[in-house]
Amino acid sequence: MNIVISNRSDQPIYEQIKEQIRSAIIRDEIAENEMLPSIRSLAHDLKISVITTKRAYDELELEGFIATVHGKGCFVLPKNKEQIREYKLKEIEQHLTNAITNAKMIRMTSDELTQLLHILLKEED
Questions:
Q1: What is the value of pTM for the model shown?
Q2: Cα–Cα distance between 115 and 118 in angstroms, integer?
Q3: Could you tell me the residue ranges of all domains in the chain?
């Protein structure tokens, strides 16, 4: 598993770890029931605090992406399709919000933005 930490990011390190692991799980880069690196091992590899790594794992567990088996480690849970859909919807909303912000900066109208979206959707078909 390749996790890249950016010290220049506004996003806290534990969130960077969480997001990258979650994305890898969703993209099937980490298989169901696969064991994740131990908290200590990942912290050592990334040269960060064990507390930071534990927080990322704890949040992934709360979100239902992984489960901790005491004395054995953390494992990827089978995918919950509805949960993944919600995650993807949130991601789409963020991208659309950014597009709207950029459109407003250049005084693009709602109709122009909608028309652009329709054109892009047709290109995908």
A1: 0.76
A2: 5
A3: 13-76, 81-124
